[in-house]
Amino acid sequence: MKEIMAVIRMNKMNQTKKALADAGIPAFVAREGYGRGRGLVNQAVLDGAAAGNEEAIALLGTKGRLYPKRIISLVVPDDKVQPAVDVLISVNKTGQAGDGKIFVMPVSDSIRVRTGEDGDAAIV
C-alpha cells in the first residue's frame, strides 16, 4: 500500500473530491497549507500588475510569498495508486504554474481502530 500526498489549488478541491469518489477512492484527509514552487511570483499577480492593478503592483516586490493550497493525503492499495494519480492529474492540471505536486510514499501497515483490521483490509 502507498500514501499519496497531493498539493493542489484551493479552488480544485470539490472537483478533486468528486473525481476521487467516482474512481472508487472516497476516503482521504485534506488540510489547508501554504507554499510556493520554484517561481517567486504568481502569474495572477503579474497579470494584475500588467493591467495596472495597484495592489498587484505592490505584491511584485514580495519575494517568497506563500500561497494558499490544499493538501490531500490518501492511502490506497498498490493496484489503486496509478488510477488515483491519474485522477489527481486530470482534475488539477491547468498547464499553469501552481498546479501542484503529487508524492507517492510506501506505507508499511494500516490499522482500522474500530475493528482492528490491518493491512489492505483496513483501507478498503
Keywords:
124 residues, alpha+beta, 4-stranded antiparallel beta sheet
Task: Explain how this protein is built.
This protein is of the alpha+beta class and 124 residues long. Helices cover 29% and strands 25% of the residues. It contains 4 helices and 4 strands; from the N terminus they run βαβααβαβ. The protein has helices at 13-22, 43-50, 54-59, 81-92, and strands at 2-9, 29-35, 67-76, 101-106. A 4-stranded antiparallel beta sheet has the order 2-3-1-4, covered by helices on one side. α1 packs antiparallel against α4. It is elongated and about 60 Å long. The model has no long low-confidence stretch (mean pLDDT 89).
Q: Average pLDDT value?
A: 89
Name the beta content range.
Answer: 25-35%
Derived structural class: alpha+beta
What spatial order of strands do you see in the largest sheet? 2-3-1-4
Are there runs of 5+ residues with pLDDT below 50, and where?
none
Summarize the entry for a quick read.
The chain is built from four helices and four strands. The chain has 124 residues and is of the alpha+beta class.
Which helices and strands, and how do they pair?
Elements: E1 2-9, H1 13-22, E2 29-35, H2 43-50, H3 54-59, E3 67-76, H4 81-92, E4 101-106
Antiparallel strand pairs: 1-3, 1-4, 2-3
Helix pairs in contact: 1-4
